[in-house]
Amino acid sequence: MIEINGALAHKFISHYHAPECVMASVPVDIEASMAHEVAQILLPRIIASQGEFIFDHEVNIQLNPVRKLLLDYFRGVSNFHEMTVGVMKVLAASEKNISEGEVYMTAFDQIIYDQKPCQAVGIFKIDGKQSFIESSLMDDQLALTLTKGIGIKDLNKGALIILDQNEMILKVFQNHPDIKYWRHQFLMIRPLENEFYQTKNTLNLCKDFALKGLDEMAKVDQVNLLNKTVDYFSEKQSFDQSEFEEEVLASTEVKAAFHSYKGDFEEKHQIEGMREQFEISKPAFKAAKKYIKSVIKLDRNFHVYVHGQRQEIERGYDEVRGKNYYKLYFDQES
Description:
The structure is a single chain. The chain has 2 domains: about 1-190, no CATH class; about 195-330, no CATH class. It is of the alpha+beta class and about 325 residues long. Helix content is about 35%, strand content about 30%. A hairpin with a 3-residue loop joins β14 and β15 (about 300-305). The mean pLDDT is about 90. The radius of gyration is 26 Å and the shape is elongated. Strands 1, 2, 3, 5, 6, 9 and 10 form a 7-stranded antiparallel beta sheet that branches. It has a two-stranded antiparallel sheet with strand order 4-11. Strands 7-8 form a two-stranded antiparallel sheet.
């Protein structure tokens, strides 16, 4: 859990990424009167992004360049300016076709992670600025000035690196999820395998299994399985695979198919560490639930939304018309 209500920004620098990068010579010490407001401009969008990450490297974690630069800064081995210049060099080397733009780097205090105040560094890339009109009244004359600046929505990519004791936790944002360099070539990160990670992946597994795991399963039974899965994650505080299988999957054949599908799902999506027991992350459940649709689409004419009571819906075939049909039982209509 990350809280930024009391966060303060105390150092700031703006470099410019281009074929020939332009490095600012000194950072700005942010005045105390502006420290909280600057933090509240820069942080909300990145804090709202899903999941948490940790640094990674395919050979040795010690070889991750951004991690080493941040660790040296947090430990006092290097100063803020030296760290930011090093980060810019890593960014420039990570991908040839990165769009030009400013790169803001900010040092923060009083970011709360797991109920502890932590230091943090933010890296924000801005590909373009908005135009603003400023007005001022002097001697009964109104003067208009056209200036450029940034708002929260202008932060195209961001990374917040939080020092939690001797570990670093990252929140990462990018406006185009298909861009690979920010997470993989530049930061070199992987998801933190916490409750959010476990809940998100397990829900995705259950959704995929319901829709694709059993070829012979009727659409109405797929929707029923999705509803039972949502109910389980909504009502429980923790996930237990054995309990889930008993309450949701029920039959021996479906359980066996689920075990087989889980192995294929992990391999296909390159997921490691899916546990059979974990605390359910309600934010992860809420985010994943938006993509679970309990609806049966019939040609282009009807959508049947099913929220439960599987026994009140029947599927059949009318030989006279040569068409499939659903029969619905209900007490009232509104």
